[in-house]
Amino acid sequence: MSETKVYGHRGSMATFPENTLLGFHEAVKQGVDGVELDVQMTKDGEIVVIHDETLDRTTNGTGYIKDCTLAEIKKYSAGIKYSNFQLFDEKSWISEQVPTLQEVLELLIPYDIELNIELKKNMFHYEGMEEKLLSLVEQYGNGRKVIYSSFHLPSILRIKELDQNAGIAWLLDHHISLPEDYIRTLHLEALHVSKDVLLTNSYPWRDMYSSIRVWTANDRDQIKQLLDLKVNAIITDFPEKALFFRSERKAFV
């Protein structure tokens, strides 16, 4: 069985601005096997990489993404809110903008890493988002492995209808009965399970760890437990820490 992979959650969000080119580049430098990001859609139909439905928490702008054009969103800083971070660099961080998915895909072209795109469709229905995502990945994905995930099951099933070869994963923050049946029936590539759900009762998942990616494990003991269970991947805010613990284990094998 292959070793557990490490995915940078929104890049390297414990130490760099989340969902920014700066953060993704840092995760790549650290040696991640993959990065996870979130997508929303603008008023003029552009796919942008940001977790929230609004600009308010992560930028110095305000308002819903769906009500702003890309040009309007690009006026704001996606780094200025992180001035409390130890590595904050005023000149480079303040100039960071909310990236488009195309910009992230182009950044990743030289690197052989996986990409997890989470569709944020819990609050709003972004018409045509799935088609746009598949088109962008086809044009700029450089053939890399891409996993489309969402809490909103219809969205990833729509991805699968549009492209039967697409890898889809259902995000879960609760237990489900007979999880393997969901994977078979819905043709899921994996389940993306909350660390709290998995670690409070790992028994129901015991035969399918190779099909489970776990979010968001940041604590040392949690990361080490998941490495012991040999889950498919750990999605973490501290990719450098998880990579160190994984290499530490290999050194003592």
What does this molecule look like?
This protein is α/β, with parallel strands linked by helices and 253 residues long. The protein has one domain: TIM Barrel (Alpha-Beta Barrel), CATH 3.20.20. The protein has helices spanning 21-30, 70-73, 90-94, 101-108, 129-140, 153-162, 179-186, 195-200, 220-229, 239-251, and strands spanning 5-9, 34-41, 47-49, 114-119, 146-150, 167-172, 190-194, 212-215, 233-236. Strand 4, helix 5 and strand 5 (146-150) form a beta-alpha-beta unit.
Summarize the structure.
The protein has 253 residues and is α/β, with parallel strands linked by helices. The protein is built from 10 helices and 9 strands.
Task: Describe this protein with a few key phrases.
single chain, 253 residues, alpha/beta, TIM Barrel, eight-stranded parallel barrel, 9 strands, globular
List the helices and strands and how they pair.
Layout: E1 5-9, H1 21-30, E2 34-41, E3 47-49, H2 70-73, H3 90-94, H4 101-108, E4 114-119, H5 129-140, E5 146-150, H6 153-162, E6 167-172, H7 179-186, E7 190-194, H8 195-200, E8 212-215, H9 220-229, E9 233-236, H10 239-251
Parallel strand pairs: 1-2, 1-9, 2-4, 4-5, 5-6, 6-7, 7-8, 8-9
Antiparallel strand pairs: 2-3
Helix pairs in contact: 1-4, 4-5, 9-10
How many structural units, i.e. domains?
A: 1
Q: What portion of residues is helical? A: 25-40%
The number of E-state strands comes to 9
Strand content: 15-25%
> Count of helices?
10
Q: Can you name the CATH architecture?
A: Alpha-Beta Barrel
User: Which structural category do the helix and sheet elements fall into?
Assistant: alpha/beta
The main sheet orders its strands as: 1-2-4-5-6-7-8-9
Helix and strand succession? EHEEHHHEHEHEHEHEHEH
The CATH superfamily turns out to be: Phosphatidylinositol (PI) phosphodiesterase
| Quaternary structure type | single chain
Whole-angstrom Rg:
18 Å
Q: What general outline do the C-alpha atoms trace?
A: globular
Unreliable runs, pLDDT <50, ≥5 residues?
Answer: none
